Amino acid sequence: MTSSSATPATPAWTSQELDRIERAEELEIASLRRGGELGSRRTIWVVRVGDGIYVRSVNGPGSDWYRGTRARREGRIRAGGVDKDVTFIDADGGIDDAVDAAYRAKYGRYSTNTIQRITSSTAGSTTLRLLPR
User: pTM for this one?
Assistant: First the structure.
């Protein structure tokens, strides 16, 4: 008898969740603390690229909310009526140009300075992909 070692599938967003988050102006994010409770919620910008949901720290890796994601890599988000536990995954640098373009398309009506900051290499270094848990 041969045993099968099936790898569990990575959870995916539903098309409805993707659409709702994509249409949301902002996302509330809270990281899970070491004790298991959620930290303070922060409001940030969010973009969709294909079937992925991405966030960045406009203030770079020193931002409190971003540092919080580094401890346990888990948290909770709320956007567009979607309230979900998530895992924070460092995005592959190959997605940076597409994420930059998504930020420009979605938030281009804001000041040029703000768009330059969210698409800078400093902010880009903090790109996280959010995976539902």
Answer: 0.90
- Those residues with Cβ within 8 angstroms of residue 37's Cβ, 6 or more apart along the chain or in another chain: none
Cβ pair 61, 126 in contact under 8 A:
yes
46 in a structural domain: yes
Instruction: Return d(Cα 74, Cα 42) in angstroms, integer.
Output: 15
Neighbours of 120 (CB within 10 A): 14
**CA distance linking residue 66 with residue 30, whole number of Å:** 10
Q: Does some domain include residue 109?
A: yes
> 89 in helix, strand or coil?
strand
Bridge pairing between strands 52-55 and 74-79: unpaired
Any domain includes 102: yes
Which uninterrupted H or E stretch holds 104? Answer: helix 96-107
Q: How many domains does the chain have?
A: 1
Do residues 51 and 18 touch, judged by C-beta distance below 8 A? yes
Question: pLDDT by residue (tens digit) across 12-41?
Answer: 999 999 999 999 999 999 999 988 899 999
Query: Looking at the predicted structure, is the pLDDT value of residue 73 above 80?
Result: yes
